[in-house]
């Protein structure tokens, strides 16, 4: 069965040449531009959107199509070219744009591409505004401009320089450089290679680049998970480096391989970054309900707390902006530091973790060992809306003694662990994340949830 074009809160994603074509992308540009014109009707200055794309071969074609759409409704475009997703967020605020567009399908396989939208504050539109854009796209209710007031395209090549200077400003460059770290960087031939190599050189590191050509020919499955990064572990071992870093194609997610070549797990990326931040600054953190408790332990020790949000980067970023959080992100390797931008940023993660290593003098293995070592299990199963609701109702009965958060599905917190069960926003699937102090404790929760699932689905 042909997959449907997905038009959701974070933008649009589809298969290039099947459901995602130049004409679809132009319409989406028209819809976003029309939305911005309606949102800022009295704005005197010309509305401007900056646009960047990751290294997928279809990026230029789709980017040009979105730009045409934006211009046709009277929006000016600044073309940033091939850049990372966090790079677009940084430039959006640097250039005081009204919005931003990123052509990327993030960690999805090569046949996919997507169009991600950002508002002037650097984050994705909230649900109500996302729905307005979606509606406008499907209704094709576009506010076309005439010849005199159509938008125009200019370009900027400043993204790398601006982005790197913002990242360097949040760390002690000399302290890191003094350690002369040797680092393997696997950019999966995505957008991250060139800029991240430059950053590492600025930080005095000896870089062993892998898959650093932004060709879009992904050298392995692009999601930075353990099974996709076995090769990186081998290179770390062979080269005897201090650490291995892996980015996804648009460089917002970061995974770490320790000095022995072992995959550390994406949950540790945010935890290690938070460990450094909470050692330096006073304040609070924000993350989603599916992220490990490690960050709560770190914050608590430092006298801070963690604000939990619904799953979705924009929810975390909005909570961070609202509460002026000193660190935040997601357990999928996404670190957000508002001093650089309200978007997950692998360059931020790399800089903060290198500084943690530099200041403590500890290896990645030692730093990971200090973080408590929970056991986490992530599972998903097919469930329609009614079945998902029933699973949650039964779980509420079963875990009546737990602290319950219903912001996004149900999160049950126990003394020794937690369960987060939620229906996916994009597919008829239920996701269940379970974390506990050790494997046997987690197994009890896994068995209890499996029993409820079987009862509902059988
Ligand atoms: Mg990504």
Protein traits:
3 domains, alpha/beta, binds magnesium ion, globular, 5-stranded antiparallel β-sheet, about 40% helix, Alpha-D-Glucose-1,6-Bisphosphate, Chain A, domain 3, 15 helices, single chain, about 450 residues, TATA-Binding Protein, 7-stranded mixed β-sheet
What does this protein structure show overall?
- This protein is α/β, with parallel strands linked by helices and 458 residues long.
- Helices cover 39% and strands 22% of the residues.
- The chain folds into three domains: 6-157, 3-Layer(aba) Sandwich (Alpha-D-Glucose-1,6-Bisphosphate, Chain A, domain 3), CATH 3.40.120; 162-371, Alpha-D-Glucose-1,6-Bisphosphate, Chain A, domain 3 (3-Layer(aba) Sandwich); 375-457, Alpha-D-phosphohexomutase, C-terminal domain (TATA-Binding Protein), CATH 3.30.310.50.
- It has helices at residues 22-39, 59-72, 85-94, 127-139, 159-168, 173-178, 193-202, 230-239, 267-280, 294-301, 313-323, 346-360, 364-369, 385-398, 439-457; strands at 6-8, 11-15, 48-53, 76-82, 99-103, 112-119, 153-155, 182-186, 206-210, 243-247, 254-257, 285-288, 306-309, 327-330, 334-336, 375-382, 403-405, 410-414, 417-423, 429-436.
- The strands form four sheets. The chain has a seven-stranded mixed β-sheet, with helices on both faces. Strands 16-20-19-18-17 form a five-stranded antiparallel β-sheet, with helices on one face.
- α2 (59-72) links the parallel β3 and β4 (76-82).
- The mean pLDDT is 95.
- The chain binds magnesium ion.
- Magnesium ion is lined by residues 106-107, 248, 250, 252-253.
């Amino acid at each position: 069965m042909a997959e449907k074009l997905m038009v959701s809160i974070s933008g649009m994603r589809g298969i290039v040449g099947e459901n995602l074509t130049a004409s679809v992308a132009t319409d989406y540009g028209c819809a976003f531009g029309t939305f911005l014109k309606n949102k800022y009707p009295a704005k005197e200055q010309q509305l401007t959107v900056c646009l960047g794309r990751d290294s997928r071969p279809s990026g230029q074609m789709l980017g040009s199509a979105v730009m045409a759409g934006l211009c046709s409704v009277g929006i000016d475009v600044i073309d940033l070219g091939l850049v990372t997703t966090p790079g677009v967020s940084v430039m959006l605020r640097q250039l005081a744009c009204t919005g931003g567009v990123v052509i990327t399908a993030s960690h999805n396989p090569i046949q996919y591409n997507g169009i991600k939208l950002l508002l002037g504050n650097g984050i994705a539109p909230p649900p109500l505004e996302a729905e307005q854009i979606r509606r406008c796209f499907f209704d094709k209710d576009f506010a076309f401009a005439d010849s005199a007031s159509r938008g125009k395209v200019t370009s900027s090549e400043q993204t790398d320089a601006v982005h790197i200077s913002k990242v360097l400003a949040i760390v002690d460059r000399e302290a890191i450089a003094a350690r002369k770290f040797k680092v393997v960087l696997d950019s999966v031939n995505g957008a991250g290679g060139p800029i991240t190599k430059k950053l590492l050189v600025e930080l005095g590191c000896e870089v062993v680049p892998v898959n650093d050509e932004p060709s879009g020919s992904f050298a392995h499955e692009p999601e930075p998970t353990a099974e996709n990064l076995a090769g990186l572990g081998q290179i770390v071992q062979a080269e005897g480096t201090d650490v291995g870093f892996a980015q996804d194609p648009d460089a917002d997610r970061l995974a770490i391989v320790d000095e022995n070549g072992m995959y550390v797990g994406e949950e540790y990326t945010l935890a290690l970054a938070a460990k450094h931040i909470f050692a330096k600054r006073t304040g609070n953190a924000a993350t989603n309900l599916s992220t490990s408790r490690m960050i709560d332990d770190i914050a608590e020790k430092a006298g801070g707390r963690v604000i939990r949000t619904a799953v979705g980067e924009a929810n975390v970023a909005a909570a961070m902006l609202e509460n002026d959080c000193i660190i935040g992100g997601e357990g999928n390797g996404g670190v957000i530091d508002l001093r650089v931008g309200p978007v997950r940023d692998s360059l931020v993660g790399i800089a903060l973790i290198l500084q943690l290593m530099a200041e403590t003098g500890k290896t990645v293995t030692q730093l990971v060992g200090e973080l408590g070592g929970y056991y986490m299990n992530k599972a998903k199963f097919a469930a329609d809306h009614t079945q998902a609701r029933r699973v949650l109702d039964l779980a509420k009965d079963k875990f009546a003694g737990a602290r319950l958060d219903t912001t996004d599905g149900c999160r049950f917190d126990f003394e020794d662990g937690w369960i987060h069960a939620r229906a996916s926003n994009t597919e008829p699937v239920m996701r269940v994340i379970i974390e506990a102090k050790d494997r046997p404790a987690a197994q009890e929760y896994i068995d209890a949830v499996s029993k409820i699932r079987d009862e509902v689905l059988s």
